[in-house]
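Weekly puzzle thread! Below is a chain. First person to post its structure in token form gets bragging rights.
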Amino acid sequence: MKWNVEFTKKAAKQVAVLSKRTQAALRLLVEDIQENGAAQPTWPNYSKLKQGKGIDKYHCHLYPRYFKMLISDLFFYARVML
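Winning reply:
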């Protein structure tokens, strides 16, 4: 089963200004999510956030420099759906 990953306009603009290395890492992560779903235990620095019952949210530090942007703007605006 393939998962669908969509970025909001804001997130897509932010991806465009990331370094090529970070864009490549993000592409790999998105491909992994599409194939295997939101839970990615093999990725370093990828973890589930504590949320309410029945709510699953994850975040990933692709590189320390991009942590704040990814957690607050980019990754949460990427929706992962079946």
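Puzzle host: Confirmed. Bonus trivia for everyone else. The chain has one domain: 4-81.
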